[in-house]
Amino acid sequence: GQGWSQINPAVASELLSQIQEGEFWVDEEEFFREFDEITMGFPVNEEGQLQSLYTQKVLCHSQNLFGSWVRGQSAGGCRNNSSFPTNPKFWLRVCEKSEVCIALLQKQHKYTADWAGRIQNLTHLAEDNLSLTEGTQGKNYQAVGLHVWKVEKKRFNLPKTLSAPPVVGTICHSYDREVHICCDLSPGFYLVVPSTFLKDAVGNFLLRVFSTGRISLSELKPPPTDAAHCEEFPAGEWETVQLHGCWKNGQSAGGSRNFPSFHINPCFPLSIPAGPGKSSVKVTLRQHCQDSKCRPIGFHIFQVPNSSWKPHTSSFLHLEPVVSCVPHCYSQEVSQLCQLSAGSYVVIPSTYLPNTEGNFTVVIATKIDR
């Protein structure tokens, strides 16, 4: 624009030489006339991992879980309300001193959900005067905040914990699509509580945690009331880890144990700490595809000598699995609940036939005895 004629040609040449693809210079007065907010995103490296804006460290570990604020049940409002402890609560386990970024991303408010997350009928929405066509800013987003407390692994008093100052939290609740906090956390267990400012304000959200060190994230759930579900997933607190992988032709798609190439399948370590008895573990294998394109999938759990064990050609000739989720099923998801003694294990997911490609997620839920 005309602004370039008002500065030294040498300075203008230097500024223009710094421009990368997609970048441009804007006059300061014009910028403040057109924009009233700046959002800075974390850079992403070539491997698709976030890089800290503050230290340039790579946040190579990540976990995420969905949640919701439900009126009368889990929409407790901010800390000014006595109902604050009813908000959704999450366990964050930090395994080593880490730089951690916790982000709360709320979904655009279009529908309300019941206790099970089912969308309610549109007649009910009309009665609640919830518009499906309103704009987003300030109307479809709640004022949200995020607070974190450090707790002991043993039993603790929830009201007493939440009445104490958090170790970190957002400065205030804000009408933003996403709020986040970045901090250094020492090893241990942390209680993460996302909340809306107003009590009974409903909404759905995604809680994401990025870290330089190993972490796990799990939701504190009340005991299930359905008897059949109790047998499938016993009541209590569960620590959940999500692991992503893929089967690639000629590299990591070894097929089932019927084939000599089984050892090239992805291998995920699982460590069960020493305790008074066996640990309850639920392993779920979920493939990423449409129902009509499901491959037959299954998995095996093997006990191994130590956590650094790696499979090779003859590894499974005389090694029998301690847990098997077979036969392979044409299903989006297969799972197995089991009891494991303290020790080192590996989880090996597979398709039935070798060289069958696909992406998948392994979810390992371990019951926490407090």
From TrEMBL:
<protein>
    <submittedName>
        <fullName>CAN10 protein</fullName>
    </submittedName>
</protein>
<dbReference type="InterPro" id="IPR022684">
    <property type="entry name" value="Calpain_cysteine_protease"/>
</dbReference>
<feature type="domain" description="Peptidase C2 calpain">
    <location>
        <begin position="61"/>
        <end position="218"/>
    </location>
</feature>
<dbReference type="InterPro" id="IPR022682">
    <property type="entry name" value="Calpain_domain_III"/>
</dbReference>
<dbReference type="InterPro" id="IPR022683">
    <property type="entry name" value="Calpain_III"/>
</dbReference>
<dbReference type="InterPro" id="IPR033883">
    <property type="entry name" value="C2_III"/>
</dbReference>
<dbReference type="GO" id="GO:0005737">
    <property type="term" value="C:cytoplasm"/>
</dbReference>
<dbReference type="Pfam" id="PF01067">
    <property type="entry name" value="Calpain_III"/>
</dbReference>
<dbReference type="InterPro" id="IPR036213">
    <property type="entry name" value="Calpain_III_sf"/>
</dbReference>
<comment type="similarity">
    <text>Belongs to the peptidase C2 family.</text>
</comment>
<feature type="domain" description="Peptidase C2 calpain">
    <location>
        <begin position="237"/>
        <end position="370"/>
    </location>
</feature>
<dbReference type="GO" id="GO:0004198">
    <property type="term" value="F:calcium-dependent cysteine-type endopeptidase activity"/>
</dbReference>
<dbReference type="GO" id="GO:0006508">
    <property type="term" value="P:proteolysis"/>
</dbReference>
